[in-house]
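Many introductory courses stop at the sequence. We go one step further.
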Amino acid sequence: MNPRVLLKGLGLIVSLALFGYFFKTSDLGNSINEAWIDNHIRDHGIEGELLFLAMGALFTAIGLPRQIIAFLAGYAFSLVLGTLFGALAALLGCILTFVYSRLFGKGLLSARLGARAKRFDAFIHDHPFSMTLLIRLLPVGSNVLTNLAAGISSIRPVPFLSASFVGYLPQTLVFALVGSGINVAATLKVGMAIVLFLISGVLGAYLYHRHRHGLSIDESVDAALGESQHP
């Protein structure tokens, strides 16, 4: 695997931890926390949870990294619930993009994403659930482009969406852990998040190398993972 892939992920973890620390210790951070998270999400029951899911779904649907939503979920809800709500928000965003692409995008998007969709079809054709899960476990690639390509491909919604949710969980756990670590044992939890990210990333790259059988989801993904075009 290209070391830059892991370094980018580690950089995101550390930067989010520093971002959270700054927000916690600065007047700006206190103001923003009270104005939005505390006043609209945290301890606001089902209304706060639904608001978070709606905002998270919208932002991930238009391309905001789902890791940031996971970080905010960890801060707002704690580790376990943050992981759940972060993954659900990413899934809802995935559904929005997938449905939009399938209903309206075949003509509009085929010119730009047609080749990617054909690669996606070939990659997941025989085992749609397991190969979609493999894509989601990779530490590289674009979440929103994958959703758009899936929408104009032939994959059925149920295996794609269910595998996406399961595949979202590991990285969501990592970044929810960073978010929940702002207040208590931040250094330890960030360290644990880094270890979990490395394990998840290396496992995803290994499974891709082991099970792709000469197929490719995207040339940029192959390059980032150090895969040859013709293994």
